[in-house]
Each structure stands twice: as C-alpha cells, then as structure tokens.
Amino acid sequence: MALTGIQILKMLPKTNCGDCGIPTCLAFAMKVAAGQTEIDTCPHVSDEAKETIGEASAPPIRTIKMGSGDSAFTIGGETCLFRHEKRFENPTGIAVLVSTAEDDAAVDAKIDRFNKFEYERVGVMMSADLIAVKDSDGNAESFTALTRKVLDKAPKASLILMTGNVDTMKAAVEACADRKPLLLGANADNWQAMGDLAKEVGCPLGVQGKSLDDLVAISGSLVDAGHKDLVIDSGARTLRGAFEDNVVSRRSAIKEKFKPLGFPTITFPCEMSDDLMMEAMIASVLMAKYAGIVVLSDLQGDVLFPLLLEQLNIFTDPQRPMVVAEDIYPLGGPGEDSPVLITCNFSLTYFIVSGEIEGSKVPSWLLIKDTEGLSVLTAWAAGKFGADLIAMFVNKSGIADKVKHRELIIPGYLATIKGELEEELPEWTITIGPREAGHLPAFLKEWKPAK
Question: What is residue 346's DSSP assignment?
Fold first, then answer.
C-alpha cells in the first residue's frame, strides 16, 4: 500500500538540508508520495528506509531499466488503466528481430534501417528502440557472434537476447559488457538457472509462458525467489490472445495488486503475421493496450513512422501540453529588415509555423509568447493571448533592437484584437497574417515593411 507524505517524512532525517534539490523534507516527502521524485534522491536517508519507502511507493507495473548510456531504455512504471486517469509513463518500445537463421546481408540491412530511420516531430526525436537477437539454431557461437555484431553496429540499441539455453545466454551476455540486455528465455524448465544468471550479471529477465496461467506460475516463483526486474510474455501469438492477456495483466496489477503480473509485457507481432503491414497494425493495437515492447520482423519507413506517431500521442501527458520556450526565434538568418511574426508556444503550432516560414526561404523573426501550451484561439479565449499580454511581451522581448521597422504580423485568427493591439503598441503597425500556416510562404514572399 502506498505511503502518505507524512508517513514518508517520519523516515527522513528531517534536516531540511536541501541536498535533494527540494527546500524541505516535508516537500520532498510529498513529492515522493505523489511519484514525482525517487526516494534515492535524498543522500541521507537510511538503506532500510529506502527499501521500505521504495517498495511501498513502487508503481503497480514495475519500472524496468535496460541498457546504459545512449542505449538506455525504460519500460513499465505504469499506475493506471486509462490515460485520462493520470498519464502513461514510459513509451512502448519498438524492436526489430534478427536471428541466427538469417544471413549476414539480411541482418546488416535490418541494422542499417534501425540506425537510419529517425524522425523529428514537434521537437521530439523518434526512432526504434531495441533489437531482439534470437537464437534459432541452438548454436552458442553463432548467437554470440550475432550479438557482437549488433553491439558493434547499433551502439544506440537496447538489446533483447532470446534463447532458452542458459549456457548460450551466458556466453552472449558476457559479450555485452555494460549494455545490460533483457534476457528473454526463462520458462517452466529453466527459470531457476535463468534467474540466477540474471542476478549474477545484473540484467532484467524475460519470462515466457505457454499461457497466462503458466506465466503466472513462473513469474510467481521468480518473485518468491526475490527477483524483481521481470518482463513477461504470456505466449499468445494471435492478436486477440495478446490483446486479452495484456488487458488481464494490467487490470490484475492495477486493480488487484497481483504481483506475478505487475511487470511490463513483451509482445511479438512478428510471429502473428507474415505481412509487415499487418504486423504494424497488430503492433498499433497492442501499443494502445499496454504492451511494454512490440517486436517487428523488419523496419520500413511507412511502417515505423505511423507507430512512432501513435507512440508520441499515447504517451504525451494530457495534463501537460507540449510547449516551447517563450523567446525570439531567428529563422533563416534574419536581419534588421526581416518580417516579425508572433504566435503561441503550443509546440505543434510552433513547429508548423516555423516549418512554413523556413520553407518560404524568407528570413524572419518569430516571437513565441507563453500561452501555457494553448493554441492561438484557445489562448485568446482564455485571456492568455490578449492585446495587453502580447504588447507587454513585445516590449520586453528586445525585438525592437533587432529590426529597423515596426511592423508586427499577428495570426489571422486574432484579427479582432488588431485595434486593441495598436493602442497597446502605438509605435508598431499591426498586420493581420494568414489564418492557415500553409499560406505563410506566399504571404511572406510578397511582404514589404510598412512605411
């Protein structure tokens, strides 16, 4: 059961030293209770208190960390069934499968696509996260060699090692140094040996059952044996089966606090279809319903990009709009005769507007006003993008020192505040720009400073 802030405070040193970055122990305790910071942040709390508080405040779906440095990847940490209840914490990992049954050319091509496909969306860099290395022929040497190839050629990839042979797994893990892969291969026959290996090398352990009941028995035994960092696979290899098992697992962990299922799941669309596009459709369903990792047979731009957008949408905190900082943004190397535009700091608005300005090839100054992440009309209606606030920002921004002219281009949707803004900024000419960002290039190419 989760501890309250007051209960946590009783276990803290209560010195208000601020070494945790928070002024008082009470404030720190409240943040730990709310899940906004970790108890380990306090350098003076006892190990006993850390263990007690950490276990009590742990999320129902355990947070699992793998990899290190650039390859670090985190899944789990979930606390709710539906995003509107709070938020989803860690995005579903997208993995591509390589196996010892494939020839070198096929493996090299997959690794190359893994490294190549990277996209930027609203200021966020998006790409696949993991490479799953599968032992298809039971040959320890070829499995270890394939693991080394992935380590060398994909330094940013988190690894999943897939084999049920403990000795084969051990040889591959030893080649990984500090990359801390997920060891996926614990089953009813080998869970004790696999668990011992995972503890020895400090890696998370993947548990594979033949059914959900079988999975519960294995993971329950591992939990009883003191294993905490697990990733679970119910063995379902149909969309319906995986979907149902994911829902049952999440609901059991969240609602019933059922520990054997309180771990992130790994699913295999690559084993549910022979068609990559169908794999992507299956992955999109499982991503929306609680999969911690989805494993695809290959990567293509037209398959990966939609999944990354879905990932971004699902795991964006609905209570915290994505924003950019309030500032002056020079686009295309503007000078003292360049146009000056203003808009809100909702990140999607910023990146659309800035993209159109850059596409116009007209160097411009873009003023971004803090509207707490609201879009133009919503911010105006909420009183956060009115004439008085815009004028105050323009005056303090320093844009007047960067341009000779005094003309400000406002979004077309703010045409009704033109008169008010002229009163607030008597030295500036207020020009109404296009309503749609797509019309900005033509508008800017014809723009001349007012005389």
Answer: B
- Long-range contacts at 217-223 (CB < 8 A, ≥ 24 apart): 217/188, 218/186, 218/187, 218/188, 218/191, 219/260, 219/261, 219/263, 220/259, 220/260, 221/191, 222/186, 222/191, 222/195, 223/259, 223/260
- Residues with Cβ < 8 Å from 323, sequence gap 6 or more? 345, 346, 347, 370, 372, 373
Q: For 136, which DSSP code? A: S
Q: Phi-psi category of 77—alpha, beta or left, where left has phi over 0 and alpha has psi -120 to 50? A: left
Query: What are the CA-CA distances from residue 104 to residues 110, 111, 138, 145, 333 (Å)?
Result: 10, 11, 17, 11, 46
Find where tokens 């033509």 sit: 442
| CA 429 to each of CA 136, 418, 422: distance values in angstroms, whole numbers, following the listed order | 70, 9, 7
Q: Report domain extents, the chain.
A: 5-57, 64-314, 327-446
Measure the CA–CA gap between 195 and 230, rounded to whole angstroms.
Answer: 10
**Do residues 281 and 219 touch, judged by C-beta distance below 8 A?**
no
Classify domain 64-314 by CATH architecture.
Answer: Alpha-Beta Barrel (3.20)
CATH architecture of structural domain 327-446? 3-Layer(aba) Sandwich (3.40)
> Which class does domain 5-57 fall in?
mainly alpha
Length of the chain, in residues: 451
Nearest to 118 by CA among 299, 310, 348, 355: 299
Question: What single DSSP character describes residue 71?
Answer: G
Element (H, E) at 249: helix 239-256
* Nearest residue to 187 via CA among 160, 219, 161: 219
375-378-381-383 Cα dihedral, nearest 10 degrees: -50
**Which residues, 6 or more positions from 209, have their beta carbon under 8 angstroms from its beta carbon?**
187, 188, 215, 216, 217, 218, 219, 232, 233, 234, 235
From first to last of its 451 residues, the chain has per-residue pLDDT tens of 567 888 888 888 889 998 888 989 999 888 888 767 778 888 888 888 887 777 666 789 999 999 888 889 999 999 899 988 888 989 999 999 999 999 999 999 999 999 999 998 767 889 999 999 999 988 999 999 999 999 999 999 999 999 999 999 999 999 997 899 999 999 999 999 999 999 999 999 999 999 999 999 999 999 999 999 999 999 999 999 999 999 999 999 999 989 999 999 999 999 999 999 999 999 999 999 999 999 999 999 999 999 999 998 899 877 777 788 899 999 999 999 999 999 999 988 998 999 999 999 999 999 999 998 888 999 999 999 999 999 999 999 999 999 999 999 999 999 999 999 999 999 999 999 999 999 999 999 999 877 6
